[in-house]
Amino acid sequence: MRDLKHAVLKLFLENRRESGKYYYTVPSPASYPYQWFWDSCFHAIILSHFSPHDAKNEIFSLLSKQFDNGLIPHMIYWKKGKVINVNWGKDGTSSITQPPMIAYAVRQIFQTDGDLSFVRTVYPSLYHFYRYLLTERDPHEKHLVGIMNPDESGEDNSPRFDDPLNLPPTNTLKENTKRRFQLVDQNIDCKFDAPFCMRNFFWVKDVPFNAIMVKNMQVLAELAEKLGNNDDALYFTQKSKEISSAMRKHQLSHGLFWSVYGKRYQKIKVKTWAIFAPLFAGILTKEEAKELVKKHLLNKKEFWTDYPVPTVSRKEPSFDPKGFWRGPAWIATNWFIYKGLLNYGFVEEAKRIKESSLALIEKSGFREHFNPLTGEGEGAKNFTWGGLVIDMD
């Protein structure tokens, strides 16, 4: 483990960038040379094991581009280059967000060094970001947070979004990217007005996004209480419970949570790693969790591959072990599942996820994602998410 930590630190030092007074980490210098929202949250979690100071800098740089309405953009270009040169209708950043992991990251930093002044400094930004999600992304107060672009899920071309995009389950990355860019153009036309854009073009209430929201509402309530903001603590605790209840009401069917879309909450019954995301937030009962793990996670015909956990069940027609978010194993999703398993006392199963994640890195290095059947690395090289294995403890 000592050698691994040394390798992770070396990777992060190589991927660190500076822009004026801000310091941040790029996910992969050649493939992803900018700053991404939930990547930076992961970076802060990882950096907290080495340097709380550097972890805080990751958060400060991320918050420096927060919009007036509270949204934290999912991309900050800092210095724009030829790679992923997408026009999001705003200079220097995108106009959408990503899974709201920032409260969790802030708490982890605080748990490392006990610096309450840091929490106090960033708390207003956190408050406004989560308030934005609770209001603008839930315009009808149904207590589920909507996303207006697949990229906001962090899983750009996941088969969960094929139906809302009117794509077949065996579409190519080129076809999928073309359709998602069309959606970006539509979002620009509607000025990224979330309620209007969602109602007219793409309105998904995604399971992982909402599960992450539930967990981060709980965490934000803890942080508010630490600061003496007791009313805020009660408010965010209540919102966490409301989202959890709404997920059970609208997304749960025969023991599995499904992402839904449109006004009628149509279930997207494509079996991806998303069915395990509620474990991370403690939304399932113990019996539901036991059934989920036994029937699906440990099922060799679905998710228990030689190198688990694939992001799509092997039974799905969209499953492709090399297909970006359509089958490969990713260390970040393994991290969510690992943490979720521990929540329910599945210590042995969590240990096996950790061992598999370590084996993938040992075999193929710090790659973006991995073939769950062979362990071969795919996608970007020198990719930072692999560092999350040091937070599997």
From TrEMBL:
<feature type="region of interest" description="Disordered">
    <location>
        <begin position="150"/>
        <end position="169"/>
    </location>
</feature>
<dbReference type="InterPro" id="IPR004888">
    <property type="entry name" value="Glycoside_hydrolase_63"/>
</dbReference>
<dbReference type="InterPro" id="IPR054491">
    <property type="entry name" value="MGH1-like_GH"/>
</dbReference>
<protein>
    <recommendedName>
        <fullName>Mannosylglycerate hydrolase MGH1-like glycoside hydrolase domain-containing protein</fullName>
    </recommendedName>
</protein>
<dbReference type="GO" id="GO:0004573">
    <property type="term" value="F:Glc3Man9GlcNAc2 oligosaccharide glucosidase activity"/>
</dbReference>
<dbReference type="InterPro" id="IPR012341">
    <property type="entry name" value="6hp_glycosidase-like_sf"/>
</dbReference>
<dbReference type="GO" id="GO:0006487">
    <property type="term" value="P:protein N-linked glycosylation"/>
</dbReference>
<dbReference type="GO" id="GO:0009311">
    <property type="term" value="P:oligosaccharide metabolic process"/>
</dbReference>
<dbReference type="Pfam" id="PF22422">
    <property type="entry name" value="MGH1-like_GH"/>
</dbReference>
<feature type="domain" description="Mannosylglycerate hydrolase MGH1-like glycoside hydrolase">
    <location>
        <begin position="32"/>
        <end position="385"/>
    </location>
</feature>
<comment type="similarity">
    <text>Belongs to the glycosyl hydrolase 63 family.</text>
</comment>
<dbReference type="InterPro" id="IPR008928">
    <property type="entry name" value="6-hairpin_glycosidase_sf"/>
</dbReference>
<keyword id="KW-0326">Glycosidase</keyword>
<keyword id="KW-0378">Hydrolase</keyword>
